Amino acid sequence: MLFLGAAIVLLIEPTAENEVRKIMGGSREPEFEPLIQKIADRYGFDPNVLRAIIRTESNYKADAVSLDGQDIGLAGVRIGTARLFRKEWKALDSDTIKTYLMDPETNLDLSGRVIGELTDHGLGSSPALFHAYNIGETKYRAGVRSPFVDRYVVAYNDYTEATA
């Protein structure tokens, strides 16, 4: 560690992949890896996209809930999005949907459906996909941008570099 005036600069040496993963997802990450791969294969997208979303939304905490109470679980699936992608949930109250979204498989399957659709719409693993995931595709196509997209991109790049 170097001290430069009032700033502190950390000099970090390259780390082994397991050390990078520890920084990225902690000890919870490996337990979800088979499910992440299964969902990415099912919906045909790069699993690093889902890893980046999970890290950004919840840091691998299945019971995560956003401050507004609308983004639930590992991948921060919104209650409204869940109703949109699961027609049978349309009439359910928000608390019931929240309970369902706390289940990692249900949460990641819904997230995977969204990512798969965005990928099919040409957004791929680009920053555009992360914008659309965070704020919705309609808003993204109308010119709205997510203030959090850099977090997703950094996480995606970290995973891509670690798995290269």
Question: What does this entry look like structurally?
Answer:
The structure is a single chain. α1 (about 15-25) runs antiparallel to α9. β3 and β4 (about 75-80) form a beta hairpin. The protein has a single domain (about 1-160), classed as Lysozyme, CATH 1.10.530. Mean pLDDT is about 85; it is low at about 1-25. It has helices at about 15-25, 30-45, 45-55, 80-85, 95-100, 105-120, 125-135, 135-140, 150-160; strands at about 1-5, 5-10, 70, 75-80. It is globular, with a radius of gyration of 17 Å. The chain is mainly alpha-helical and about 160 residues long. The protein contains nine helices and four strands, in the order ββαααββαααααα. The longest helix is centred in the last third of the chain and has 17 residues, at about 105-120.
Number of domains: 1
Tally of strands: 4
**Sequence stretches where pLDDT stays below 50 over 5 or more residues:** 1-24
User: What is the annotated CATH architecture?
Assistant: Orthogonal Bundle
Fold-level CATH name: Lysozyme
N- to C-terminal separation? 28 Å
Average pLDDT score: 86
Indicate the proportion of strand residues.
5-15%
The neighbouring-strand order within the major sheet is 1-2
> In sequence order, what are the helices and strands, one letter per element?
EEHHHEEHHHHHH
Number of H/I helices: 9
Judged by helices, strands and strand pairing, the structural class is: mainly alpha
Helix proportion: 55-70%
Q: What overall geometry do the principal axes of the alpha carbons give? A: globular
Name of the CATH first level = Mainly Alpha
Using the CA coordinates, give the radius of gyration.
17 Å
| Major sheet description | 2 strands, antiparallel
